[in-house]
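TEACHING EXERCISE
Course module: macromolecular assemblies
Task: Read the component lines below, then compare them to the predicted structure of the full complex.
Student: A.B.
Group: 4
Components provided:
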Amino acid sequence: GAVVSQHPSRVICKSGTSVKIECRSLDFQATTMFWYRQFPKQSLMLMATSNEGSKATYEQGVEKDKFLINHASLTLSTLTVTSAHPEDSSFYICSARVQGGFGNTGELFFGEGSRLTVL
Amino acid sequence: GDSVTQMEGPVTLSEEAFLTINCTYTATGYPSLFWYVQYPGEGLQLLLKATKADDKGSNKGFEATYRKETTSFHLEKGSVQVSDSAVYFCALLNQAGTALIFGKGTTLSVSS
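Instructor-supplied answer key:
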């Protein structure tokens, strides 16, 4: 099946620094990618929808200036956590939708996730 | 808005026991429904899906039936294995077809 790769898988940073997480579709083109955040013992929370060549669409309550999303090509979307603080520590997961439409197949392909720890 | 509610975990079973993880949903219309699984240290994987009422999704011995009348999509397996230990997420596709709405996840731990 399609493969989505995230990098880095784990990152530890100091408070106040910015961290970039990459999400790549390895064997297909993805016009749309999604970024999720997962808190311990909680569900995935959709943060934003990343559209290639246009601005990301953020979910209510997600600070777009805090979580910068760039989808510069059909195979790469990046999430930058700016001026990170300990409360930003979380597991961030991206997913990609195969170009051609979601239809009713509903098959999103997920990355492995990136665990961010802010000290 | 659309939402998914699944039973709280953790669920702890012995090998070969019967598994049920309950999932109910609230949504506009008739969304497609999914179960995803996350094994330790890995990303999410689609386990099974159902796109319309009365459909039964099945994979790796797991089954779930789309019940419109009870707005449910319970996950079942007749005989669990240690290798089934993972976190299971129920999800629905929103009406716009743009995103998956997830439940909180249920951790399953199977011991031999």
